[in-house]
Specification:
255 residues, alpha/beta, Rossmann fold, globular
Length: 255
Amino acid sequence: MSAETPANPRAVARAVAARFRWPWQRDYARAKLSWDPAYAAVAGVLSESDVAVLDIGCGLGLLGFYLRERGYKGAYLGVDFDAPKIAEAQRIARIAGMDLVFVDGDARALPEFSGHVVLLDLLHYLQSTDQQMLLREAAARVAESGVLIARNVLRASGWRFHVTVLQERFIHAVRWMRSPPLHYPLRDEIEAPLRASGLDVDVRPLWGNTPFNSFLIVARRGSRTPQEGGGLHPDAPRGTSRTIADEAAATCRTP
């Protein structure tokens, strides 16, 4: 990271974006890392941890590059079935001399792994049965000292959900995403397989400055006693206590 403030999202976004060769990729990376609170949220959970990370559905590898810029030194394995995106991530990692591994693979056939597991905006591109299987397989790869972190849209009746559905249709229509959304999960559909796998689960809104119905799911293996009710209802407003999600949103508002 440069001499600019390491946690400054604009500085991190510029550093990562500059590594992409096409202008539209640079613009996308810069905007995504500047305004999407998911990356700061993940970095916040993984702070002071060098346990290996499995990034399922890594796309262009933004999370891996972001974590390196934020000082994360653990091993990283990114998996995605979009071969051109994986090729670009591999190219950047090779040129930059970063020890990040990116592989072209299907989320439904995960490699052997033990550590932290991350799934950002992935589940709704799978059918319900595949979501359940993936969550069980992902949970099985969480180490004793590890954590599973997911960010996903949750099915609800509010305006945020409908805006998210429109945005998903658009990015598929312009071929940014190879797969259309197949099933928007309810909160219980995510929590149930994780709890059945022995993980304590917390669900919080992760809206930041976006209009999307995104939630942060953090699951740990026996790290704490689950709270009664397991977090927030998908339609509930944020509480007054500052959570990792709140800190991430605040970080993304840093000028």
